[in-house]
Amino acid sequence: MSAEVKNGYKLTEVGVIPEDWEVRRIGELKPFITSGSRGWAEFYSDRGAPFIRITNLVRTSIFLDLKDLRLVNLPKDASEGTRTQLHDDDVLISITADIGIISYVSPDVPKPAYINQHIALVRFDASTISPKFVAYFLASDKPQKLFRALTDSGAKAGMSLITVQNILLAFPPTKAEQAAISEALSDADALIESLEKLITKKRQIKQGAMQELLTGKKRLPGFSGEWEVKKLGDVAEVIMGQSPTSINYNTKGTGLPLIQGNADIVDRQTIIRVFTSDVTRNGKCGDILMSVRAPVGEVSRAVFDVCLGRGVCAIRSANHFIYHYLIAQEPSWARLSKGSTFDSVNSADVKAFAIYLPVDSKEQSAIAEILMDMDSEIEVLEVKLVKARKIKHGIMHNLLTGKIRVS
Description:
Number of domains: 2
CATH topology of the largest domain: Adenine-n6-DNA-methyltransferase TaqI, Chain A, domain 2
Strand order of the largest sheet: 15-19-16-23-20
Strand content: 15-25%
Number of helices: 10
Structural class: alpha+beta
CATH superfamily of the largest domain: DNA methylase specificity domains
Distance between the termini: 29 Å
Largest sheet: 5 strands, mixed
């Protein structure tokens, strides 16, 4: 194994790293380590200080997600407030259930802020080591594999603060190099965040356009004709799914990918779960796919031929207006759903669903074209986001193992 290590590098417990890098346990760096405590529910408030929970820690970034934020109003004499209050540069680690989600407390986090009992706080001496570097390192592949091993060890898996002290770190000899690595990764995160925000904004703009254009509240230039109500079954062919014989399920790609229901519809695109050579009911590429049970009304577009399971139906029409109209009407299906065990609709329900659309087919096409252009713009941004995330992952691997050095 040692023969495989290039000159200038060494094999350690955390992998191959440069010879001048150190490997230390967190506890050897003498940080302040603590965790939150129970009993904060009595302090929950509509206003007050941020109370950080595991839901505010995300695996795709070391920066906290503060959108779904619980607030607490803590009495001045509460001792827990002193011990669990966050400072800038603190490193947070989830220590129960989903172990090893890493966050870094930046100046952007409002202070005071506190943590609950499922999170460990590690406060390093920032004069000797870069806490942001530590956060990025712990979020990288090798440490995450170790965290996943702890998570997979059982339903009640958890880390003690002693275990936190024993976590291994590998880091460059100078804080300047640590900081340079951190800043390079922060730049990658900033690009990803800007793309995420732009995609959210574009989706909101499209949602607003749908609400106006698909209801006739806003008319396109050159159109002023009447709108009418049609039954879905009168303007499109509806093909209900049916469960194929399970003996023909396979993962070898024999037959067509089976779309069972809502679990196979993600971000308006179908995903392959399992194939079946028993194609009882099939959907064609371009069909509108809609879940018909638990929940009802989730809409997608088939990007390849599929086998329709009993939880979905295919709506076949060359009219793109219908696709966008059904997306906008997803909440309406809840009122039509029925079933004692779970919500569902049948063929008659789907065919009888009311579609409100312009009499003039040219107006239908014009509206659909605008919305499709918006979808295309969002898809381009989503491709850029996927690429940016892959690039960041590669940068993390190279910088956090010392394969590429920065100064």
